[in-house]
Amino acid sequence: MTDKLIRGTAKSGEVRFIAASTTNLVNEGTKVHNCSATASAALGRLLTGASLMGTMLKSDKDSLTLQINGGGPSKALVATAYANGKVKGYIGNPSVDLPLNSKGKLDVGGAVGKNGNLYVIRDMGLKDPYIGQVPIYTGEIAEDLAYYFTVSEQTPSAVALGVLVDKDLSIKASGGFIIQMMPGADPLLADLITYRLEDLPSVTDMLAKGMTIEEIIKEVFDGMEPKIMEEMEPSFTCDCSRERVERALISIGEKDLKQIYEDGKTEELKCHFCNKSYEFNQEEIGKLLERVSKK
Question: What pTM, to 2 d.p., does this model score?
């Protein structure tokens, strides 16, 4: 089944939602990084959350990056998303694998840790990006994003993110949603939605049973006339290129580039997001050095 991301409102615009099924997206991302089960759950949640939040961007040229590092064995997790639902990301330790937690679930919180911060970085083409940060609340990622929205953006939000990893480490189901009350909304409506979410199965349970993301949203907002305003196909997509890597090499400065050239070795650079390798021999390094010296 194709992944799908939807955006819309319910209860006459008093509440808005962004929801997505991301099974294929997460499957691609975790395969690229050869993730263990615990790492797949952690990275998959962050990729899904970033993809949802990326659609809040105003321009196609803007980007949103989530970074979380709680000092746990997973090390840092990073995901960068765009307005079209495309996202890329990586986990510092893709081999991290812990015993199940007390609830019998993959221990994402234990892998991430709670000794650190969640950063939300919005690059909108200005001189400096906007950076919001909050202390890590649980390390489970969904709760941390909800905490960020409430504390940093003063927007009470319900965030659900889930990744169901199969025995062969493929992704059986993945998805999530963000639900936010609009200014002036009836406070009792927020309570009603909270109670309803507590009674519903997890997103991954519903997806694994064959429910579509539209059906899940209808279940959440039963009787509230949910209206889908936009839909798109989210995907794990890396926009790295040889040209970008060349610019990164040039940015290290003439002194360091000259040292690499004089070593006479082929330089291999690997993209963190997709693991693609780019090689530069001594002649190619020399040409880059000429470009730097002419500036």
Answer: 0.94
